[in-house]
Design a protein that fits this description.
The structure is a homodimer of 250-residue chains.
Chain A: E1 7-12, H1 26-43, H2 48-53, E2 56-67, E3 76-87, E4 90-98, E5 104-116, E6 121-122, H3 128-133, E7 156-161, H4 175-183, H5 188-193, E8 194-203, E9 212-220, E10 226-233, E11 239-249
Antiparallel strand pairs in A: 1-3, 2-5, 2-8, 3-4, 4-5, 5-6, 7-9, 8-11, 9-10, 10-11
Chain lengths: 250, 250
Amino acid sequence: MVIMSGYSKEYEIFYFQVDQFGEASVITILDFLEDCAIAHSEAVGLGIESLLEQRTCWVLNRWRLEMERYPRLGEKVTIETLNTGFERFYGERVFTIRDSQGNIIGKAGSLWIYLNIDKRRPTRIPLQFADQYGVPERYEGKEPFEDLPEITDIHSEIRFHVRRSDIDTNGHVNNTRYVEWMLEGISEESLKDYRLHRLEVIYKKETPYGTDILSQGQGAKDAGLQYLHRVLDQSGERELACGRTVWTKR
Amino acid sequence: MVIMSGYSKEYEIFYFQVDQFGEASVITILDFLEDCAIAHSEAVGLGIESLLEQRTCWVLNRWRLEMERYPRLGEKVTIETLNTGFERFYGERVFTIRDSQGNIIGKAGSLWIYLNIDKRRPTRIPLQFADQYGVPERYEGKEPFEDLPEITDIHSEIRFHVRRSDIDTNGHVNNTRYVEWMLEGISEESLKDYRLHRLEVIYKKETPYGTDILSQGQGAKDAGLQYLHRVLDQSGERELACGRTVWTKR
């Protein structure tokens, strides 16, 4: 087991964060991870406002999440996060999710791009960030991000209108919404029998308020309980995000 | 000032709970109120599971919320709630929202219906509930719920498709979603200049997963910064919820 330093924060599972099984939804977990990353940045003096002064921000590029179990209503979880390295304009960050007994119930990895807001283009991460975040010289638990296979057969297709409540503080669709749209393609019946075990998401383009999107999925029970997902703009031409989900029996 | 007994719980404002102004959204506040009410019931032995054994549940009938200011990212608020009375199958509950200095920043009232799940009809509240919840003999701060005026002119109209993520643990649309749909009718420009000060909602019908809804609004800046809202089923014939919002300058 890798001992993390970095930053940690406790979260309680509230009523509005659980699904029909009384368990925290995967969206809630992603919300916690994002909040924890932002709180870490804030704690080391590199919060949203401070970056805004430099006209920069972090944009999420990838998520990888693996949950052994989901916490239930009223449970408390502690999330630890560690910035494991910077490379040009990429920052990598890992997370460990523990229950109140200290058992690891989930882990996650993420890749973030450091952006110049005005040019809307990646920009080099300042050298002193590594010291401020306490990036370890060598991080043993590194797991590379894989590319995802293309969808070859479309088994489900749903259209969504982007709501104002889908929009982030920066005017674009919040990253958890793409996951929500991907998961809407899974049948109600599959959800009754299976639980999301592993999730990978790659973000490709930002989506502004007021547009429509298309969520497509491929996969079936006999395909090893694995689904491929993609979110396109309404024309179906621009891929906004793609993902893969792996499910295990409840 | 009325001193409440009842139940209280602390909430921190996380990143995913703030709007574009860095303030907790009204949806977040309603989520907190609902969670606090449920936690209170849990604490006195009348939680969701315990009612389920009796084949009963609480269904929200009305909200009334008044916010002096909205808490900001990272702030902690304490919500106190008190069950102020039972009448046949109606339960009334009030809330006070305080910041970390103890200042009252908001207050709310709510009316709940006690339901027989199998018959889907209101049922008489057991006498012993009043003792268990610690309902005061006489509650001074009572504020009656008003009926809302009908919409006579439609100034905005938007359609929504109900998503799985809109659905509650009981298989119906969560009560905060209706408010979300009502607020989508307010223009982006009005939101920049005005802040929601007072909200009233009346819930009329339950909405299942997979349907479409219609959100209509009436009001303008010159109409005293007041809007009327209603949410209808897709045919436009059945009213599912209605509301009134009052806005003050930022």
